[in-house]
Amino acid sequence: MHSFAVDRIAEWIVSERFPVGAALPIEQKLCEELGVSRTIVREAVKTLAAKGMVEVAPKLGSRVLPENLWNMFDPQVLGWRLSFREAGVVAEDLTELRLLFEPAAARFTATRASYSEKRAIRHAYEQMAEAEGRSQAFSKADIAFHTLILDACHNSFLRRLAPLVEILIQTTLDLYAEGGWDSEHIESASLPLHAALAEAISEGNADAAERAACAIIKTAQDDMRRAVTRLATKGTATS
């Protein structure tokens, strides 16, 4: 019930039912609308306050904070933002962030990963190849591939960014699906790029690993932009 209350109040905030600066309803009204106890409402609001989405002040109640104060590195906040606002905008920002850190992480992994870590990365790529044509399995293997690279770069801060990469990969694939793209084509086009990255890491070639990671992200960025444009055109035609 706590998770339900947190998700629902966050949805109201992100969808701007309660815009920036607005006060949330008093506890009793939230209890009635959500069908939960006061304790659950209080804990839910505390959770959102810890994520920077609301401010709780004595006698003033809870107010929605500006989006620039939200903890966008929190996977839940990012997920809500992607679900209830224009996904293409935040996905573009995240892709730019990936371009800043993933090629560097791939470079580190090529020189720092152990034999077993390199073997796990290669295995994740093989799972991607085996899953071609099965979107859900392909997505799972794709996420595992990139997560393993971040883990094997042996940088404690870069490792913490894995949940952001997971959300972005899934969001990008969802955009493809919504835009009516041929998922098998997307998968077959990305496989050679992932193969090049797995090979560069396996060989300990830092320069090649960095270039391959950059190529993967830029290709995904171009595909995502086309998917967003296609969705916008589709929406205009429908209206």
Condensed summary:
It is built from 11 helices and 2 strands.
CATH class of the largest domain: Mainly Alpha
What's the mean pLDDT score? 86
Instruction: State the order of secondary-structure elements, H for helix, E for strand.
Output: HHHEEHHHHHHHH
Please state the structural category. Answer: mainly alpha
Number of helices: 11
Distance between the termini: 38 Å
**Quaternary assembly:** single chain
Overall geometric form = elongated
- Uncertain ranges: none
What share of the residues lie within helices? Answer: over 70%
Largest sheet entry? 2 strands, antiparallel
Instruction: Tell me the strand percentage band.
Output: under 5%
User: What is the CATH architecture term of the largest domain?
Assistant: Up-down Bundle
Radius of gyration: 21 Å
Strand order, main sheet: write it out: 1-2
CATH fold-level label of the largest domain: Four Helix Bundle (Hemerythrin (Met), subunit A)
- Whole-number count of domains: 2
In CATH, the homologous superfamily of the largest domain goes by the name GntR ligand-binding domain-like
Number of β-strand runs: 2
Fill in the keyword field for this structure.
2 strands, mainly alpha, Four Helix Bundle (Hemerythrin (Met), subunit A), 11 helices, 239 residues, 3% strand, two-stranded antiparallel ribbon
